[in-house]
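2024-03-11 09:14:02 INFO worker-7 job=invfold-0412 stage=load source=structure_tokens
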């Protein structure tokens, strides 16, 4: 694959830079325009985890805050529908649980897990995420231990608990959360300083929201903007967005506004978070799996994954997320169910993931099985897969594992499991115990990982690397 260093792993780069080129620009606002509209110290765009946390921090520091959320309330953002796992370091909860470590130790953990990430932004995350979680828990938000990616580095924040705690706290502090209100462009003065946002309400009428101290863009990624996905991720990526798994807000609004204001896009704009998913005969995601994480083949890291040519194209051990990114680069079969990646496994893995397969079968997912690999190779030909090459690939795969040379395969099958994750089977398994199974899949895009380039302080950076005055970004934006 091309260099697919996940931006999520680059971590805290800013979020959601991909919203295409907007028709309107962040034009300077006239003095007459500045006399009308709403006023606050801080205007936050987006009412997900990042946006509401930014609002809570600002109001806790004495600022007046207005939050703009384009969706109806409650919004179906990624925050609202995700599992709630987060990287966290040195929060009071972790200290109470005996999971405390020094900042340097936590930073080393993050570098081990995400060595290609921006070290300055990672350091900023390590130093600030603990106090941010403490702020949220001080307002009643519940947190739970979660080994993600390491035992001492993870927490789970159930979305309902987050909203139930933070929204009342914001309302009590006088923060106005304006739902069904879309931010359309940034307002800037003659010196290029961001002074507010041009917005549109549910009635279709436009109005200005002025920010005396700053605007925070936290409006999510661009996974639902086909123009941006095609531009930044892949010309074929819209096929993955049609299988999109979660939130409905990621249309790239924050990215578009930032780019129009001269912001720089982050590296690795082509990366995304997602997984391979089961398919029905017509090449679609099973109806019962849509809009959730159900039906994702997160166990693909344990298997061998081949393309229509019957060849492996990725290091399956790297992560399920990276498999999905690599799969998007593979050609799609012209035969039903139009798969891009074909997951090959044996009965040992199948029994380990029996619940996944039982659910998939109930949703009419396409799965082939055979008593021998030779018979399985014949069956996958009906999907447009080179069965003979698939058989040769699995034989080579098994031989390399038997010889202790899995790392020498091309691409390799890494013997070291992804840092911090624990599987109930070895990560490197021979495909040797019948019956054998093949699953046609496609990558489903959950959210984009590229976004707006920021400084360690969260300031949006322009194309020369300088802060855009009074403009900040957070979350998937």
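2024-03-11 09:14:09 INFO worker-7 stage=emit residues=477
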């Amino acid at each position: 694959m091309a260099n697919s260093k996940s931006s999520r792993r680059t971590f805290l780069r800013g979020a959601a830079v991909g919203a295409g080129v907007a028709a309107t620009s962040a034009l300077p606002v006239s003095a007459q325009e500045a006399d009308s509209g709403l006023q606050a110290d801080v205007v936050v765009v987006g009412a997900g985890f990042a946006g509401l946390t930014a609002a809570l921090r600002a109001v806790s520091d004495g600022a007046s805050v207005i939050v703009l959320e384009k969706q109806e309330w409650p919004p179906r953002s990624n925050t609202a529908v995700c599992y709630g796992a987060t990287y966290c370091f040195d929060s009071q909860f972790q200290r109470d649980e005996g999971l405390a470590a020094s900042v340097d130790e936590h930073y080393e953990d993050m570098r081990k897990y995400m060595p290609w990430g921006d070290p300055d932004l990672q350091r900023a995350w390590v130093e600030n995420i603990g106090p941010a979680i403490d702020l949220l828990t001080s307002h009643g938000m519940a947190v739970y231990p979660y080994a993600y990616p390491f035992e001492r580095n993870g927490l789970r924040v159930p979305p309902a608990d987050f909203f139930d705690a933070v929204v009342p706290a914001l309302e009590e502090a006088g923060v106005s959360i304006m739902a069904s209100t879309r931010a359309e462009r940034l307002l800037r003065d003659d010196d290029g300083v961001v002074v507010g946002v041009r917005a549109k309400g549910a009635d279709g009428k436009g109005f200005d929201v002025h920010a005396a101290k700053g605007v925070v863009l936290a409006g999510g990624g661009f996974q639902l903007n086909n123009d941006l996905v095609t531009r930044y991720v892949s010309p074929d990526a819209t096929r993955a967005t049609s299988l999109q798994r979660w939130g409905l807000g990621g249309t790239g609004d924050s990215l578009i506004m930032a780019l129009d204001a001269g912001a720089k896009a982050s590296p690795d704009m082509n990366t995304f978070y997602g997984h391979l998913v089961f398919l029905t005969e017509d090449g679609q995601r099973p109806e019962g799996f849509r809009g959730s994480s159900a039906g994702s083949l997160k166990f693909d890291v344990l298997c061998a994954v081949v393309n229509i040519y019957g060849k492996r194209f990725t290091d399956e051990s790297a992560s399920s997320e990276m498999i999905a990114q690599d799969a998007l680069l593979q050609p799609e079969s012209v035969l039903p169910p139009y798969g891009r990646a074909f997951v090959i496994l044996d009965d040992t893995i199948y029994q380990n993931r029996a619940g996944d397969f039982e659910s998939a079968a109930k949703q009419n997912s396409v799965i082939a099985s055979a008593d021998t690999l030779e018979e399985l190779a014949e069956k996958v030909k009906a999907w447009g897969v080179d069965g003979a090459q698939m058989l040769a690939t699995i034989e080579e795969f098994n031989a390399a594992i038997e010889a202790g040379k899995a790392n020498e395969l091309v691409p390799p099958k890494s013997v070291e499991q992804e840092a911090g994750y624990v599987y109930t089977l070895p990560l490197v398994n021979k495909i040797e115990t019948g019956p054998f199974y093949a699953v046609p899949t496609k990558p489903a895009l959950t959210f984009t990982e590229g976004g707006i380039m920021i400084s360690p302080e969260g300031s949006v950076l322009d194309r020369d690397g300088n802060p855009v005055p009074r403009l900040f970004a957070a979350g998937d934006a």
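2024-03-11 09:14:09 INFO worker-7 stage=report msg="The two ends are 25 Å apart (CA to CA)."
2024-03-11 09:14:10 INFO worker-7 job finished
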